[in-house]
Amino acid sequence: MPSQGGAPTQLTSHGGFAPEPSRDGKFIYYAKGRDLPGIWRVPVDGGEETKILDAPPAAGWAYFVVAEKGIYYADEPNRVDLGIYFYDFKTRGSSAVRLFDRFGSEGAPGLSISPNGRYALYTTLAPPAVSVMLVDNFRY
Questions:
Q1: Which residues contact 60 (CB under 8 A, 6 or more apart)?
Q2: Where are the beta strands (DSSP E) in 54-119?
Q3: Of 28, 122, 33, which Cα lies nearest the Cα of 75?
């Protein structure tokens, strides 16, 4: 719904949830479904939906954060190198930021990056409970 009021505008046509606005306010980034991997985007005024990334995996739909210069997200490419990655809007490439032994809690939101990019807060499923971890000196 426009901030000035008026009728709501449908932005997605085949599902979408866990929306994150871009820092410039031009796009909405979102997951398509709980069983579908990837991050999509659509202009805030409506328009074509575009798949930006094939990650995070389907169970990691809540593990992405839109920043000014890109997207931080959790991934496990080829079932190795589990961790936080950064997708750069300018280069359209991804790189590992921090790798972990364990990461995530399926179905629960679990990744937050401080506005200055220095800290990452994430959940991890470690027996026998879920924990919240703060990473100091997190800088990309």
A1: 37, 73, 74, 75, 104, 106
A2: 64-66, 70-75, 83-88, 94-99, 111-113
A3: 122
Closest CA to 71 of 20, 35, 122, 106: 20
The pLDDT profile of the chain, 140 residues, written as one tens digit per residue, is 666 777 887 888 888 888 899 999 999 999 887 788 899 999 998 889 999 998 888 777 778 999 999 999 988 766 677 888 999 999 999 999 988 776 665 556 678 898 888 888 887 765 655 667 777 777 66
Hey, how many other C-beta atoms are within 10 angstroms of the C-beta on 122? 25
Which residues sit opposite 51 in a β-bridge? 40
Structure tokens at 126: 């470690």
